[in-house]
């Protein structure tokens, strides 16, 4: 899948930003949580201390009140007789003064003389005579009191006890909760007496708390879970050795969650901005980098096309610059190498040509010998005294023909040796051109018993070609066929139109060309199975056809025959092309 | 010493023989404080009463009285009032036995104010504050224990035992008591000390019978 670098950069930036954001959020949350937990632990300890000192203050107050009451002569006078009727009104008076929730008076035997503030049922209170209960909690019906008692003495004699009680209830919980800045629950094994929490919460908390034993020596608060909420809790006895407990409670989650949410909000805000910034930066950086890529591609493609002059831009200072520099170095080196190859090729071509000429010389001289022999014989015969004038004319024509042939051969040779391409196109009618050629070929073939068939389903077509060259190419193919055909052989020639091309096909019924040399037959000086010939025939034919922008191909089946197909583009009429700009008058002046 | 003991024993024997001869009964006994060991009952009898100044401020003093339960006997009331003074931020004496109908004066001999009062059911009163040299008088019409306090000074306390009969004794708690020449009948022996600790015992006394009573103050 094609994914532009820009998008990749963007995705990477987004990924990195999200991971960074997530991990930092986690880390900060974790840190905050542990710090907050520590802080809340500290707060809870503080709250408990406040709670305890507040409770102690209350107890001290009770103790002081009890002492004042017990030492008041009017009070102990009322108690001294152990008489309920005497004690009751005095006790009422003193309770109003002390302002305590519970006011309890007993005689020296623990018999109750007065109880105020507890209401309800009669108090079944077994007051020990020897040990006055100091600093204790007491349950009365469903009420719980924090109690401070004091012996009432007259001289050396203890006449009774007075106890002042602080009611442990909802109101006290609320007040203590406010003072401590935490939730407070009072409870014992039988029930809850006061709580700043809702009833259901209290019940759940107490259920959890009962499973833990109050541990006054522990400095670490208990961490309990109530309804999935983490709660820090300190609990202890309301009075030493008593059953009733208090619990000071702080919800960790309730305090943590808003903080965490706050933090999360901030981090997400900042993170979002950072993400946008990362996007912008990565986009701009990627754009800058990738903007140079099309230039680089253009430069490389120019080199691919063979244009070694386009300088690759040297922008930026990064890996892309390194690539650009490398491409530029490659361009330089390629240019140099290609220059060197060209030079070497030209040199090689020249030397090859010379070598070919040298190699040809013997063949050519041999070829030239025959026409020269003919000319010499014709000259001898025509210069003879008894030569008839019509004979002389005949010999003269013979000489002319042989000379033309030699000139042609020389010209071919020269052209090939020089590697020149000279062409003069003439617009002509294909049918006319072909019928002339067929007539000539039949004159050669008829005496040898070879049949020339011609077939042309072509509509009247005009084509611009160098007719000499094409004729010579066709001649070469036909002569080759004639040379390999036995009497009775057939040469089939046909012309077809294939779209904008014209195809000329020359097929024989000869022995065919072996597969191994089929690819070599268009090479110069490749003569196979032929006694005569310069070895240039097919090479020249190929060259002539290619000069016209056409192609030549061979099909051969050993034992069945060979077929050459020349395909020529049907060019626009009246076009004359001279590729090398060589004039018509340029003929071979000298070869040897 | 030995001579003295012999003399006492002889005296007691002579008295017993005399009592038997009169066919009169007797209650004797001792008073103990809870947790305090008491001596064996004394072998001598304290007779008669001390109409004036029959109080004491010494600690360890106990007032013991015998009250008939079946019949009321009017005690002899002297015109002379009994005295319970306030001296050195204490009552002096702090234990007093008075017959029903007796008057008690409470003179303030201290340089500071005192406020004598009592919430006790037999006689509840409040004399208010008065300075040195002044006095207040209270008449006690009902028998029983009356506890006296000062509303200003918590350390001050006293007890007055109001008796319906003339048989009572003030004695050291270590000593025994004895009430001879009692006619047969039902009695209550009451003991109290200054701080109000008290004890009682009901007795059915037959002719010629001698009953030993052990009382423990509580």
Report on the architecture of this protein.
The complex is a heterodimer of chains A (592) and B (218). In chain A, strands 2-1-5-4-3 form a five-stranded antiparallel beta sheet. In chain A, strands 7-6-10-9-8 form a five-stranded antiparallel beta sheet. Chain A is α+β, with helices and mostly antiparallel strands. Helices cover 52% and strands 19% of the residues of chain A. By secondary structure, chain B is mainly beta. In chain B, strand 5 (85-87) and strand 6 (90-92) form a beta hairpin. Chain B is globular, with a radius of gyration of 18 Å. The chains are: A alpha+beta (592), B mainly beta (218). Chain A binds chain B through residues 71-74, 76-78, 80-81, 83, 85-86, 90, 108, 154-157, 159, and chain B through 117-121, 124, 145, 147, 149-157, 194-197, 218.
For the record, what is the CATH homologous superfamily label of chain B?
Answer: Cupredoxins -  blue copper proteins
Overall geometry of chain B comes to globular
Arithmetic mean of pLDDT of chain A: 80
Number of strands of chain A: 17
CATH class of chain B: Mainly Beta
As for the number of domains of chain A, it is: 3
Q: Supply the CATH class of the largest domain in chain A.
A: Alpha Beta
Briefly summarize what is shown.
Chain A has 592 residues and is of the alpha+beta class.
Protein traits:
heterodimer; A: 592 residues; alpha+beta; Beta-Lactamase; Heat Shock Protein 90; 3 domains; five-stranded antiparallel beta sheet; 17 strands; 52% helix; B: 218 residues; mainly beta; Immunoglobulin-like; six-stranded mixed beta sheet; four-stranded antiparallel beta sheet; 18 strands; 10% helix
How do the helices and strands line up, and which of them pair or pack?
The complex is a heterodimer of chains A (592) and B (218).
Chain A: H1 5-70, H2 73-80, H3 84-98, E1 102-107, E2 112-116, E3 136-140, E4 143-154, E5 157-167, H4 170-180, E6 183-187, E7 192-195, H5 199-210, E8 222-226, E9 229-237, E10 245-251, H6 252-305, H7 319-383, H8 389-418, E11 426-429, H9 430-445, E12 451-455, E13 462-465, H10 467-484, E14 490-498, E15 501-508, H11 515-518, H12 537-547, E16 551-557, E17 561-569
Parallel strand pairs in A: 12-14
Antiparallel strand pairs in A: 1-2, 1-5, 3-4, 4-5, 6-7, 6-10, 8-9, 9-10, 11-13, 14-15, 15-17, 16-17
Helix pairs in contact in A: 1-4, 1-6, 2-3, 6-7, 7-8, 9-10, 10-12
Chain B: H1 2-22, E1 25-33, E2 55-56, E3 61-68, E4 82-83, E5 85-87, E6 90-92, E7 95-99, E8 103-105, E9 114-118, E10 125-130, E11 137-139, E12 144-150, E13 157-163, E14 168-172, E15 176-182, E16 185-193, E17 198-205, E18 210-217
Parallel strand pairs in B: 1-18, 4-8, 7-13
Antiparallel strand pairs in B: 1-15, 2-7, 3-14, 3-16, 5-6, 8-11, 9-10, 9-12, 12-13, 16-17
């Amino acid at each position: 899948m094609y994914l532009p670098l820009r998008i990749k950069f963007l995705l990477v930036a987004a990924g990195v930003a999200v991971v960074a954001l997530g991990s930092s959020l986690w880390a900060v949350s974790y840190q905050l949580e542990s710090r907050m937990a520590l802080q809340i632990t500290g707060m809870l300890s503080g709250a408990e201390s406040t709670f305890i000192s507040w409770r102690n203050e209350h107890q001290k107050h009770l103790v002081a009140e009890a002492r004042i009451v017990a030492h008041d002569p009017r009070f102990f006078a009322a108690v001294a007789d152990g008489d309920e009727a005497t004690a009751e009104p005095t006790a009422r008076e003193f309770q109003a003064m002390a302002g305590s929730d519970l006011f309890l008076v007993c005689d020296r035997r623990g018999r109750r003389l007065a109880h105020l503030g507890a209401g309800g049922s009669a108090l079944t209170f077994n007051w020990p005579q020897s040990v006055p209960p100091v600093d204790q909690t007491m349950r009365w019906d469903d009420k719980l009191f924090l109690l401070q008692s004091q012996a009432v003495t007259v001289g050396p004699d203890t006449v009774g006890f007075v106890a002042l009680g602080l009611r442990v209830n909802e109101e006290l919980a609320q007040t203590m909760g406010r003072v401590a800045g935490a939730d407070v629950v009072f409870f014992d094994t039988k029930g809850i007496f006061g709580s700043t929490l809702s009833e259901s919460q209290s019940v759940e908390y107490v259920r959890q708390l009962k499973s833990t034993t109050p541990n006054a020596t522990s400095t670490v608060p208990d961490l309990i879970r109530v309804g999935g909420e983490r709660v820090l809790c300190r609990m202890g006895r309301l009075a030493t050795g008593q059953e009733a407990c208090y619990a000071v409670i702080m919800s960790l989650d309730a305090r943590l969650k808003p903080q965490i949410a706050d933090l999360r909000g901030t981090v997400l805000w900042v993170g979002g901005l950072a993400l946008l910034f990362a996007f912008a930066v990565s986009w701009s950086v990627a754009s800058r980098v990738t903007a140079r890529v099309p230039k680089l591609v253009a430069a490389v493609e120019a080199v691919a096309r063979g244009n070694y002059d386009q300088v690759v831009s040297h922008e930026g200072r990064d890996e892309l610059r390194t690539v650009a520099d490398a491409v530029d170095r490659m361009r330089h080196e390629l240019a140099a190498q290609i220059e060197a190859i060209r030079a070497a090729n030209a040199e090689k071509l020249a030397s090859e040509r010379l070598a070919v000429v040298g190699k040809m010389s013997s063949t050519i001289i041999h070829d030239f010998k025959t026409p020269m022999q003919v000319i010499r014989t014709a000259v001898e015969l025509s210069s003879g005294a008894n030569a008839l004038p019509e004979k002389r004319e005949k010999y003269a024509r013979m000489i002319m023909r042989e000379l033309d042939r030699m000139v042609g051969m020389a010209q071919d040779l020269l052209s090939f040796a020089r590697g020149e391409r000279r062409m003069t196109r003439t617009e002509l009618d294909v049918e006319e051109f072909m019928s002339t050629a067929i007539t000539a070929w039949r004159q050669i073939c008829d005496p040898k018993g070879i049949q020339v068939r011609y077939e042309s389903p072509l509509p009247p077509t005009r084509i611009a070609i160098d007719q000499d060259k094409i004729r010579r190419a066709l001649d070469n193919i036909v002569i080759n066929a004639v040379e390999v055909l036995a009497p009775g052989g057939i040469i089939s020639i046909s012309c077809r139109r294939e779209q904008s091309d014209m195809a000329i096909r020359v097929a024989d019924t000869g022995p065919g060309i072996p597969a191994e040399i089929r690819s070599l037959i268009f090479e110069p000086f490749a003569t196979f199975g032929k006694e005569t010939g310069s070895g240039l025939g097919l090479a020249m034919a190929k060259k002539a056809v290619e000069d016209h922008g056409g192609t030549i191909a061979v099909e051969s089946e050993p034992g069945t025959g060979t077929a050459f197909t020349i395909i020529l583009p049907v060019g626009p009429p009246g076009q004359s092309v001279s590729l090398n700009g060589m004039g018509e008058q340029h003929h071979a002046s000298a070869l040897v | 010493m030995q001579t003295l003991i012999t003399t006492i024993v002889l005296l007691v024997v002579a008295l017993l023989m005399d009592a038997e001869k009169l066919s009169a009964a007797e209650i004797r006994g001792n008073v103990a404080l809870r947790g305090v060991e008491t001596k064996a009952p004394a072998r001598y009898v304290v007779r008669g009463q001390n109409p004036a100044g029959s109080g004491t401020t010494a600690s360890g003093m106990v007032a013991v009285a015998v009250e008939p339960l079946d019949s009321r006997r009017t005690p002899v009331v002297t015109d002379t009032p009994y005295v319970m003074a306030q001296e050195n931020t204490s009552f002096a004496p702090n234990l007093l036995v008075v017959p029903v109908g007796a008057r008690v004066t409470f003179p303030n001999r201290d340089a500071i104010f005192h406020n004598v009062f009592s919430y006790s059911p037999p006689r509840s009163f409040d004399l208010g504050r008065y300075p040195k040299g002044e006095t207040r008088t209270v008449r006690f019409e009902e028998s029983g224990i009356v506890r006296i306090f000062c509303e200003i000074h918590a350390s001050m306390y006293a007890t007055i035992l109001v008796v319906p009969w003339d048989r009572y004794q003030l004695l050291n708690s270590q000593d025994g008591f004895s009430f001879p020449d009692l006619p047969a009948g039902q009695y209550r022996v009451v003991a109290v000390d200054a701080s109000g600790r008290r004890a009682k015992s009901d007795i059915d006394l037959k002719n010629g019978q001698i009953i030993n009573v052990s009382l423990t103050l509580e």
